[in-house]
Amino acid sequence: MKIAVVGTGYVGLVTGTCLAETGNQVICVDINQNKVKMMQEGKLPIYEPGLELLFHRNINQGRLHFTSNLAEAIAEAQIIFLALPTPPGGDGSADLSYVLGAAKDIAGLITDYKVIVTKSTVPVGTADKITAVLEQHTKVEYAVVSNPEFLREGVAVEDFMKPDRIVIGTLDERARKLMGELYAPYVRQGNPIIYMDQRSSELTKYAANSFLATKISFMNEIANLCELVGADVDMVRRGIGSDERIGRRFLFSGIGYGGSCFPKDVQALAKSAAEAEYDFKVLNAVMEVNDIQRKILVQKVRKYYGGDLKGKKFAIWGLAFKPETDDIREAPALYIIDELLKEGATVAAFDPEAMPNVKGVIGDKITYTKEQYEALEGADALLVLTEWSVFRTPDFDKLESLLKAKVVFDGRNLYDIQKMIDCGFYYNSIGRKVIG
Ligand SMILES: NC(=O)C1=CN([C@@H]2O[C@H](COP(=O)(O)OP(=O)(O)OC[C@H]3O[C@@H](n4cnc5c(N)ncnc54)[C@H](O)[C@@H]3O)[C@@H](O)[C@H]2O)C=CC1
Ligand SMILES: O=C(O)[C@H]1O[C@H](OP(=O)(O)OP(=O)(O)OC[C@H]2O[C@@H](n3ccc(=O)[nH]c3=O)[C@H](O)[C@@H]2O)[C@H](O)[C@@H](O)[C@@H]1O
């Protein structure tokens, strides 16, 4: 099939590459000419495990192309994917200007039947808004389909190639058939394509992200309660996760959810609910808990030093909002660094992938080190903020010799309490016993 993908951020690039991988001809278009040039030269603009191999293979085999010319991208496409940003507007609702702007541009260019698909996360009613724009600007036949994306950064290729489910929102028979054919190679694991109307499909995406964020905020509150009543959140997590109705995944307490989607999507769903005059109480609590959780580690640090962080030096391991990505959008680490700097502390940080992005945002306000142990030199304490594998089994002797004091604040519960007792550390994590 011939496919155009409009917007080559995370989702567009993964979508385009993975659709080419099953034999489709894909043209990706982006307004960022530097990015397009880079991709035309065979360079990937993002770090995503497993993507590079597929990216090069499909470029080399002539199935994956990049352009900054929308007309060229969509001329022969049967299906046009919109993978454009939907950032929060000033009032928290999703900003649809990219999506509706592209729909208008596309309407002015199409000459034959096209299926126009929203991959972007968009509020209920967006397909109707796109349809209204198209109706106003073209006489050509088209169908508007909602096809939300559920991939996670860091495992995006696997999520796209072997999805738990594919949701296709359309009542247009011709579009439904084309989308079914396009996705047939991806349902070989036996996981279903679920067809529905556009509105249900649009809401499914927000409901999925908001439900996952709810699980996280719930577990963060359980962790906070554990600390007050002398229970251990790891035990509670294992105890409840073995109940299949609850499930083992997404029950890890920490320093709050971040990333480009959970914060904005929970907020956007709450806003959509408010517009429908529905007070979605659970979502408001989920956001409030997350705001508190992002600051919890700094509160612990502050308490340990009797409220005075002036002149203290902290080593930070992990800046990305989660491991296996260089993405720092809404990363808890940024909030924590901001608080520490405001209180007169200094920071030396290491992250395997995200340091250039952090440097782009906060520059030289902190020091970046070449490897993880260098960050510890002369630091008063270590703060672990992202659960990269390299931080899971550190050399504790090195920790002891490089840190000024044997103090570790762990926002991701990586270390075994007994091990920390044996090594004689002061160790404070989330929802577990404080030792030392
Ligand atoms: N990042 C993720 O893991 C996921 C994101 N989503 C959703 O997918 C959508 C896109 O997200 P990301 O890929 O993260 O965004 P992004 O911000 O990484 O990329 C968007 C791209 O669109 C380009 N662009 C903007 N206006 C354009 C236009 N008029 N024509 C062509 N290109 C244009 C930008 O230059 C940029 O390269 C959002 O709605 C997001 O909520 C959904 C699932 C996962
Ligand atoms: O719409 C999106 O953009 C995507 O958002 C999330 O994917 P992603 O943001 O890549 O990352 P997650 O793995 O979901 O983690 C999100 C945040 O929750 C935190 N988290 C996750 C799981 C957990 O148990 N505890 C926890 O604190 C992570 O540290 C991270 O900050 C969803 O998992 C995807 O299904 C969805 O497609």
From TrEMBL:
NAD(+) binds at D30, K35, T86, T121, E153, K264, R329. Pathway: Nucleotide-sugar biosynthesis; UDP-alpha-D-glucuronate biosynthesis; UDP-alpha-D-glucuronate from UDP-alpha-D-glucose: step 1/1. Substrate binds at F150, L151, R152, E153, K205, F250, L251, F252, S253, G254, G258, K322. The active site is at C261 (nucleophile). One of its GO terms (molecular function) is NAD binding. SMART domains: UDPG_MGDP_dh_C (SM00984). Its EC number is 1.1.1.22. Residues 315-417 form the UDP-glucose/GDP-mannose dehydrogenase C-terminal domain. Keywords: NAD, Oxidoreductase. One of its GO terms (biological process) is polysaccharide biosynthetic process. It catalyses: UDP-alpha-D-glucose + 2 NAD(+) + H2O = UDP-alpha-D-glucuronate + 2 NADH + 3 H(+). Catalyzes the conversion of UDP-glucose into UDP-glucuronate, one of the precursors of teichuronic acid. Belongs to the UDP-glucose/GDP-mannose dehydrogenase family. This is UDP-glucose 6-dehydrogenase. The lineage of its organism: Bacteria, Pseudomonadati, Bacteroidota, Sphingobacteriia, Sphingobacteriales.
